[in-house]
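Thread title: Can someone regenerate the structure for this chain?

I was given the following input by a collaborator and told the matching structure tokens would be attached. They weren't. Posting the sequence so someone can regenerate them.
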Amino acid sequence: MMIMRMKLSFAFILLALSVLTCFANETAVPIQKDASGEQMYQTLCASCHGAQLQGGQAQSLVDAIWQFGSGRGDIRRNIKHGIADFAMPAFEATLSDQQIGRIMDFLSEAEKTSGVTKPPPPGKLFTLDYEVNVEIWLKDLNIPWSIDFADRHTALVTERPGRLRVVVDGELQAEPVQGTPQVLHEGQGGLLDVVLDPDYASNGWVYLSYSHPLELPDQERILTMTRIVRGRIRDNTWVDQEVVYEAAPEHYSRTRHHYGSRIVFDRTGHLFFSVGERGDAPFAQKLDRPNGKIHRVFPDGTIPPDNPFVGQPGALPSIYSYGHRNPQGLAIHPETGQLWETEHGPMGGDELNLILPGRNYGWPEVTYGRDYSGMKISDFREKPGMESPILYWSPSIAACGSDFVRGDLFPRWRDKLLAGALKYEEVRLLDIQDGRVLHQEIILKNAGRVRDVCSGPDGAIYVVLNGPDVILRLTPLRDVNEGPQ
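Best answer:
Regenerated them for you:
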């Protein structure tokens, strides 16, 4: 026991020394204004990441695996603002934006010349409960965004450029569905969510969300907004289209981001959908704007009479909750029927929320994050009358699609929440009980940007990835709690 304590103490001392070394590099080393990216890297970064970028106290920078986001914006923010939870210091007081840019150029060139490419998804995963088999279930896709199943044999997949694809027994049909709505595929926009009606077997309705373009004669730039339609697929053609939700023309935006766009049905047949604040944060607090809201309608788009703002002057009657930034994960708990949401917050402020009717979730009046520039957004993390998140992620993981585990394949995971993450390329498994997260585990990491997760009708877990543009299928090989087989 004494030896074990000594080993633990020594490990903590080493960790503390590594942290102090990194922060000492940030604060104590003078940097010449015209220093090259390589010179600055060797001075500030090599002690943690290695002189050859091979890794050491911190991860390698030339192994094609970026733990905290691979985009140029992600890397810039990590250098400038640091990742305090992982002992990555902030260099905003030490380096100018131009100097950070030179370091990034050096890192980019070093990664290219290393010849290392992103490894393929793993064939196996080892989790606390299961050894999991991972197979590439579908490939030859172009920016897949969402998946939903009609039954064990048939699935629908959206591709953001504007295509709806049919999958039969794991085979991607060659031709996309013809006649689907026109989308504006710019920025974060395009063809986004797909959900099948709970009574699809009898009525055939398929629901789509997308960035709807609106050209007005007095506008130099095409305006867009989240739109929800439903239709049927007959002879591989989109027919019988009906508009479920369309914003007023004056609520369309010039921006190309924060569409929200997730759709989910509850157990009583209500349709919920999310709309991001479209980059205009104050609109999330305004009840006369659809931005930054979760809406509830009947499947045909009519308004339930018990919606929380029905009859309130100046409020849109479809609103169910407000004060959201960019909700891109919606899931109904299989047992409780509660609506759970994951949303993109600002830097350091992604959230998991339990959505209740009429509640205000605070954005941008309260937040755990700050702007990507590093500027403070709000002085408050909580306020009376505003809901606090059940969980927030700092650093931000770029929370995206979510679903609860159903079926019999993963009995130890049943009713736990699968939460996907774009930036951190993760699937997290959250144990939620009595409105609290008791535990979370990363069950998939660095296979690609996780756009959507789905518990299929066969009980398998399907993971939609961007970069590579594939869909993975996860099934259990064995329950590790039952010992070797």
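The longest helix spans residues 2-28.
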